[in-house]
Every structure is written in C-alpha cells, then in structure tokens.
C-alpha cells in the first residue's frame, strides 16, 4: 500500500518590529547602530519592520567615526536582507528619517503613505508587497508609526483601514506592525471592526504586549496585527540587550501563511 501524498505545508516566516530611535541610545547619548545591527541579525527574522530609521544626517556623518557610508537602513540590511524599502517621513535641514522594511524575500512593490496631520509630527505607513518563493499569493506588509495625539491616531487608523481595503485583495495575507503609540488601547477594536485585523498578543495571551519603556515596560505601544494568516509563539524580546539598544522592546512572531 503506497503512502498517500501529503499536502504541502504552508510557508512560514518570522517577523520582527522595533523602533530603533535613529540608532542612538536614550537621550541620544551614544551611537549604537553597529550594535543594533548585530542584535537584529541574531533574531534571524525574515522580515523586519523598523520605525525612526535615519535616511541621512549631515552632522552625524561628519561627527561620528562609526557612521556608515551607506544610508543607515542599507547598513542594517547589509547582506542579510537583500531587499529593503525606506519611507521618508520627517525631513529637516540636516537630513530625514522614517520607516523601513527589510526582507529576505523579494519586495515587488512598495509605497509610503504620508499620514501626517497638521503640525510638527510627521508620520507614515510604509506598504510593501512581498513575493514568498513557492507561494502563489503575494504577502502584504505595512510598517506603521502613528502620532502621539489621540485625535491624530484616530485619523491615521482610519487611513490605515482604507489602505487594507483599497491596495490589496481581500484574501491576501496581511501583516501590519510597528509603533502605534496607542497607550489607551483604542486601536484593537477599530482595526478588527473596520479591517478584520487581529492583534497577535491579544489573540494569544488576552492582552497586548507591554513594550515601553524597554527597561521596565508598562505601556503597550508596539503591535503586530494579521489578516488571512495565523501566528505561532509571539514573544517580547528580553531586556538584555534590548533595553540598552532601544527605548521600545522589540516584538517577534512566527507567521504561518
């Protein structure tokens, strides 16, 4: 009797989200981008969502001996993540910063959405479309950094929900991750009701993960939401070394498509 053919296992990928604070320690006391790169590499994520990523900065490049020749997001991606996308949000005379996505899979398209509300805060949603080898559907990921003001976040969440309906098929796997600054925990109900997005820590453990400040987390500011895929073992990375590397504790999860 011959063995029955087995169904191919759906692809899985490890994702990580972290606010890197422009590659500096708290209060900008020390430049730590090389240490940060080493720590991110050790996680072994397939897709990394990053917020507060410097694109360029004239003063830092002249003053800091370790400043990379390539843009910081390219320096972070170097050889490990051959595909990367950067969305410039905040522009100032000396440079700019924004969100970035690093991927081991091809990024076939990306678009940065400016969701800034009137005022000095500049925020964005970086939408990337990934092609995972051996998987016929394209995977959509959105790197998020929302505002500090409640009224601004409400409008930005509405824009995020619109994107999830207008820029991807309804059945496409979707991963939304980043710094939501949602200390009042209002986003979960909105994103579930309006976009069908589930927060993975709430789904697994009953509440979102506390991530800020990383040295002693009390606020659940960072999130990972999914649609049309499942999640295995979401974790908050430990204080060592991360409390030294970022004021936000990173989140990691295994996503099954």
TrEMBL record:
GO terms for molecular function: endonuclease activity. Keywords: Endonuclease, Hydrolase, Nuclease. The keyword Hydrolase applies. SUPFAM superfamilies: DNase I-like. Residues 16-248 form the Endonuclease/exonuclease/phosphatase domain. Pfam families: Exo_endo_phos. GO terms for biological process: GPI anchor biosynthetic process. GO terms for cellular component: membrane. It comes from the Bacteria. PANTHER family: CALCOFLUOR WHITE HYPERSENSITIVE PROTEIN PRECURSOR, PGAP2-INTERACTING PROTEIN. This is Endonuclease/exonuclease/phosphatase family protein. It comes from Ramlibacter monticola.
